[in-house]
Amino acid sequence: MIILVLNAGSSSLKYQIYNMSDESVLAQGRVERIGMEDSILTHEPSGKTEVRQVSEILDHNTAVKKLTDLLIDREHGVILSMKDINAVGHRVVHGGESFKHSVIVTSEVKQEIRKLIDLAPLHNPAAMMGIMAVEANLPDVSQVVVFDTAFHQSMPQETFLYPIPMVLYRRHKIRRYGFHGTSHDYVSRQAAMKLNKPLESLKMVTCHIGNGASCAAILDGKSFDTSMGLTPLEGLMMGTRSGDLDPAIVPFTMDKEELTLNEVNSMLNKHSGLQAISGFSSDMREITDAMKDGDKQAKLAFDMYTYRLRKYIGAYAAGMNGIDVLVFTAGVGENSVMVRQAVCENLSFMGIELDNERNEIRSKEVRLISTDKSRVSVLVVPTNEELIIARDTYQLVRESL
Ligand code: AMP
């Protein structure tokens, strides 16, 4: 079965096409700057030369048309005809309380995703555009939606509710939803497999730290708590997002700086985090490079980032009465030896003992980086959200045949 995975943003569309007989990636690519005159389509077919096209792509519909044309192109294509695509899987950011797992797209599902636009005004409309574009270009193909929030729907009320008037939850569904669910789900399973233990028997904290960052407490194989909330702004310090802060800072800043709500929202999402404290970058590579050159603001940004992550790990260990496994994943988690070391250094009281040599090893494999004596197993697990979307799509479509 051939499956196309789409991840639609408001002005971008990323794709991967899988042959599910061996889960190999036939091609991947992205369309950027959708809606502009100089949109860029980058197509990387496996074993063939990369293609980069600059042209006007005004909407997602045209983006899907262009990328599917390339998929069947004589020179750059990887399949013979559009009929070879058996199903399309979409990443959808917000599934609210309606979606506890991935589903096949029906008119009711589309209606429900539209209803959730209130909760994810930037993300869910883009996903809908992706779904509609596939309907227009590949009308006979089954579509599946995979939600970032679904894995966290197992959280109990005590962790998902905010201590604010209950009427806000009842009327507007204001609560913690959590994101990066496909990643937390996948890496927790991979970690249990590596340790050769049933997932249900392990108390785990998974740290998905990339551009966006969140951690999750995993108990009995299910999400028990997670650091992102109603939106992906809460929790850890991120590249450009603040993460946790005193909510009173919002009205206080609006008053003192004469800012509108939108301006403060933009400040907290786009101009905070590593970017704000370092003053020059949201990228952990540049922060750690500058630290080595003695940049004090970079060092402060790094210390705040790792301290805040360590606090969450401690909080979740308290929430679950200890942990057995700590997992690092995503861009920073998989690559930054320094971040992993700084986070773990002061967790020895919990029985975490990092093996510095193992921590230095660079590899794309799941690997243990704690010592053999460490009471908590610390692992690096490369995440693969597209593969999970492809697997869910494959399974649901097969069951429906
Ligand atoms: P992601 O969102 O998972 O793609 O992660 C992207 C982020 O990972 C980048 O913004 C970088 O900050 C970070 N990153 C990637 N490679 C490295 C590295 N070698 N060292 C530190 N951070 C890295």
Automatic annotation (TrEMBL):
SUPFAM superfamilies: Actin-like ATPase domain
Residue sites binding substrate per the record: R91
Predominant localisation class: cytoplasm
Cofactor(s) the protein requires to work: Mg(2+); Mn(2+)
Gene3D superfamilies the record matches: 3.30.420.40
Subcellular location: Cytoplasm
Tagged with keyword Mitochondrion: no
Cofactor details (free text): Mg(2+). Can also accept Mn(2+).
GO biological process, one term: acetate metabolic process
Catalytic EC class: transferase
Keyword annotations of the record: ATP-binding, Cytoplasm, Kinase, Magnesium, Metal-binding, Nucleotide-binding, Transferase
Family affiliation: Belongs to the acetokinase family.
Complexes and interactors: Homodimer.
Protein name from the UniProt record: Acetate kinase
Organism of derivation: Paenibacillus baekrokdamisoli
Lineage: Bacteria, Bacillati, Bacillota, Bacilli, Bacillales
